[in-house]
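pasting for the record
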Amino acid sequence: MIELLRDVVNIDSGSYDKPGVDAVGARFERHFAEHGIACFREPHDVSGDALHGSVAKPGSNEKPVLLMGHRDTVFPKGEVAHRPFSIEGSRAHGPGVADMKAGLVINVFVAAAFAKFGSAPCPIKLLITSDEEIGSPSSRPVIEREARAARAVYNSEPGRPTGNITTSRKGGVFMRFEIFGKAAHSGNNFGDGISAIGELAHKIVRIHALTDMAKGITLNVGLIAGGQSVNTTAPHAEGQIDLRYIDPADRATTLAAIEAIIATSTVPGTTAKLHINGEFLPLVQSESSKILFDAYRAAAKDAGLPKLDGEFAGGCADSGF
């Protein structure tokens, strides 16, 4: 397990680095071949290919259990050269070691253990995706298709610092808005200008005011840009919005409020557009997923592991799909 983890961590695999992401996939394919696990690639033109694996239960028509996770990371190309895989004490370090290449190693070794004995107690499928860190634009339909066909789904994202298991998560929508004004010299022709940056400032305040901590709704304009020179009224400005929410119903109402802010101008003459770059749905703990977690917790107890509880996480993941 350590050897495989070292190999996949020591490959740069940022979400936009298709060759790197596919190289990690190739290393997992080699593992599958070595352990007799059937596998195939589902090609994507831009993102890394989706990698599928399976261990059959001969003669069974049961729905499979799906073990899934992503192999892309948030890190740029060259990160491995700065801090390659290492072990200090009982901890492994390196880009993507926790989020979430170690989880993938767990999944493929579970499959290898069943393959070693010729079958599984129910059919097992594995899905290793390639673009979760940017909202799964290529992988979302694959995840939804495979999850619908499964009896149960386990996503091996890292758990909480407490050691608990993540059983619910926030959803997120990631947006960019553009504002258009009119350039004019700020000394000679100030009155002719229409400041897109001025309008940007008003919109940021109104967007942030939509935050409702009691309901778990947060809005953050985390990136802004605009203008062409210090002595010119800004003809263009833009901002990027991170919306997080817990209740699926809050997505539509909050988006409607954002759209109203974007459509309303405080600085006369400005116009604006809103673009949705990507999103994650929330992971909501249903009654059936509570039963699944109880089964997981009972198995952990039988294995002698410490007591586990379910825990909420504010971060998003493709488990919401």
